[in-house]
Amino acid sequence: MTTLSDPPKQQFRLSMLLYDTRYRSATIQVLAMFGFMLLAAWLISNAAQNLAALGKPISFSFFTESASYDINQRLLEYDSRDTHLRAALIGLLNTLVVAVLGCITATIIGVFVGILRLSSNWLVARIMTVYVEIFRNVPVLLWIVFAMAILIESLPSPRDFRGEDPAATMDMFGTVAITNRGVYIPEPLFTNSLGNLHIFGDSSLRFDISLDLVAVLAVLAASIFAMRKVAARAARIQEETGVRPKTWYIQLGILFVPLLTLLVALGFYLGYPELKGFNFTGGTHLRNSLIALWLALSLYTAAFIAEIVRGGILAISHGQTEAAAALGLRSGRIMRLVVLPQAMRVIIPPMISNYLNLTKNSSLAIAVGYMDITGTLGGITMNQTGRELECVLLLMLVYLAISLCISSVMNWYNKRMKLVER
Amino acid sequence: MGDTHAETVTFVRDTMLPQQEPPLTTVGPIGWMRANLFSGVLNTILTLVSLAFIYYVLSGILPWVFQSVWNANSLTECREIMTATWGDTHGHACWGVIKDRWLQLLYGFYPPYPAYPDANFSAPPDGHWWPAYFRPNLTLILLILALLPVLFSGAPRKLLYLSAAYPFILPWLLWGGAIWVPLLVAAGFGIGYLAFVLISPRLGALSALIAAVVLPLLWWLFAVGPVSGALSSVLDIGIAPVQSRDFGGYMLAIVLGVVAIGCSLPLGVLMALGRQSDLMIVKYLCIGFIEFIRGVPLITLLFVASLLLNYFLPPGTNFDLILRVMIMMTLFAAAYMAEVVRGGLAALPKGQYEGADSLGLNYWQAQRLIIMPQALKISIPGIVSTFIGIFKDTTLVSIIGLFDVIGLASAIRADTAWNGIYWELFAFIGALFFVVCFTMSRYSMYLERKLQTGHR
Amino acid sequence: MKKSVLFGALTVASLAAGAAAAGTLDDVKARGKLNCGVVTGLAGFGAPDANGEWKGFDVAICRAVAAAVLGDASAVEFVPTTGKTRFTALASGEIDLLARNTTWTFSRDVDLKFDFIGVNYYDGQGFLVPKELGVSSAKELDGATVCIQTGTTTELNLADFFRVNNISYEPVPIETNAEGQQQYLAGACDAYTTDASGLAATRAAFEDPSAHVILPEIISKEPLGPLVRHGDNNWGDVVRWTLNALITAEELGVTSTNVSEIASNTENPEIRRLLGTEGTLGEMLGLDNEWAKRAILAGGNYGEVFAQNIGETTPIGLARGLNAQWTDGGLLYAPPFR
Question: How many domains does chain A have?
């Protein structure tokens, strides 16, 4: 009889790092890390050497210098004496504007087209197929250039509005001017304006908040809150007595009376665009470059979204539609209440990547002269200062940050929409 | 109540009615139209609106396309002809620019007869037997042949040898030079394989793997140059070299797309495996790289290629721009490819992994024999759509000054003869891209359908 | 050159560290090709024709330098550069010479570390407006929409001009001249501003050039010239004196047609020095004595190059103006060859 003894203690040998599966993964990881650091060090030392040879050490001091170029499309106030940093900020906001607008319209068009592609109307379904195929299979850069060219060539120039018998007139009862320089729409103005709130004083990051807008939004928020209270109360009464009290006139009153009072108090009126000198003045000017970029990006991305939506709808089993029809729902309601909510779960993940693509594609704005962050920081600023390394790295960082924000928001939404499995 | 049924009713038909023609409104074209176009008020309105829309679009485009001028050598000439024929210059295309420059739009500045630098398309050299642009055309034909066995399961399997050789044929045919270089580079893979086979029984698989990676690298870096030089001095077989600067036009888009996808495939597979791996550091390095590349627009990566890459290489190194762009596009494609392959890996049932484990296969054997063949097969539609995306994105290189089709269109418009021309060039370019991308997307759909039926 | 260019580049590049330390002149001679940075396409100044042959005023400088250094006017690799990539391409050594209508400014010369070797075209920024607007001076453009090409000094000049004159404007940035032309013609902008030479070229291509006027104001000085990297003075001298040779040749009446004849039988000592029949000017540059003769033969003297590419007989139709010889009241004044 032999007694069980402890297995012989293995002496640690160096070769075990390679052949013992317990240690091997650690070895590989250390090697990978080492290799990565070596590569990074090599790149950085090369860059340092090259920059030293050129006499251009990395420095971000150009950000505080005067940009001395003008930007037409801007959300914040800016003139050519402002710094490069502020120019970059204006560009960043422009990128965000077109990305947000584009995502919204692309979704609307995409869902619409995706549903119409499944329409029982043969002609409509075919037209939508042709639209999807044409837009998906031609580079977005071409579409952007195309959209701009179409706007420029087909719309009247402000010159055509002039004279006794003008070749073009303003639309919507003379309140909207659609020209090949952009669309001029009425803007809200206040006679007793509350003024602006200046934030960050004189720095490059300064911005103004319109107190009028804040007041309107605050009143609106309060009204909606009150409306929901009323609705909740109505629901409670309905639960208790079975009769729902009529509240629609109270709700309307709560929504509109304070708002109208505020607007009257502020002296609200619309400023209409007017042809003065070379251009229309007054009103809000939506520039062609923005519209072209917005249109092209939305239509291009919508073609992809349409396919996703179609795939999502087709993925819902036919039984769901039939069951809904058996309940007596009409086709529009079946789509809205039964099919789309379920299809959403299939649709959202690929939708995220399309939103990201749209945002990234907005960097092609330079093709139509829309001053986004690529046009300011990665364009004129880079050209004028000659600081390619700093500008391009910063540009990538900015886009990375935007992408990460979008994907984290959408992932959060995706989690919320996920089917809770029991 | 013994009465039969027949006696209680006054009339019973005892013959069948002859079958009638279905009403005219439910069959044939009319029936089809009623069912598909005018099935309700809403549908009728939609149909009418669509018809009006189609008429509007076609009435704008068709006259422009067909009432056009083909025989003109400059825009001024075009306008003269238009005024003479139709009385005005608007609403008519001037396709003369395409006729004049289509070769340039397709091939850029690639020499039609590389061996004869002075020859051009209209003045072919004496004593040649091959047609103009023989090399790029042959490369394209071989590309299609090499892709056939990969894309269609019905294609002859022997073509797979061509697919394997193609990565060496493409650069040699396009860039030219001595035949020894691609042969020696291919030999590097042989060396790696030999090293693995010879070393693994003696020193174990891992050292063999390391040797199989390091030896070919050393061979490529230090031996290929001198050996090919020596071989060339003994036996000078080669074709005339072409600078990558001469690449341009639509050919550039195809070359960039094919090279980026081809090179990114192995890279993408490795990164997808890295991302799925249990090794934490490797995993996070892969995730970091993939998410970084996917988070920035391609145009910034092209800025890196054109402006920054030289900073990150040893002082004095000088890649030409097209190679730099190829590198960045490959990295870009690899990140997307990694995600596609990861999707394929995730779609495999867990049983496949467990089955491989139970057979006692190690990690690489399992990947090579069980996982990858299946994962890659499901990923082909994704790979094709990545390719379409990359292919369309090659147009961005015009922004950094390369003469792809769009860059060439700008250059043509800068020529005094064609200054002011616009739609014709872009319509032509759009059509070029549409044809290729549409074909590929159709293929991808066909494949998806095929794969789907396989599962059910 | 029987090596595969691709694999050659890949293997050589990884080992070639430090190889470019030699002077640019030696590099160019060893390579047998001049890498010349040009514009991606600007009518008259540089654009490829249907055969891929580059032609234009700036291109002619490249060809003259190639002829002087390598003896072959076609030994040029043209590298198209954009406003963004041009300086990086030069700084990184991708090109030996940048001849791409680049304005000589302090910061480019000093801060970006380049050497402008002279001026081959004196330009200035102007405005193009339709006649029907009835504008006769740029100062009347208050509130106008102005199309402007980005990536150049023009946007800075424009901002300065309108600020100094305290008038407002709406800039519409555009990427290429062709786009600007399209927007301007469609009336999407009231005025188009760029260098006056570009305006003339643009206007010449219009269906009805007479309906448009170039305003009298020139709001900036734009001395356009070729440039090289800072620090390689020998190479800078070669390019500078090639340009000077073309200018001097015009001044002395030496053209591409009569250069061979004049070289053999002239008694004018300066011509003899220029064409290398007397003295050793070429050797001082590190070239042979016939360098200037070859440069002139490549495309002609300055006047011939001007007339062929952008002169009054071409569609561009530019008058000599400031770019006439100093003897004709222009600014071209080449230092003497002695």
Answer: 1
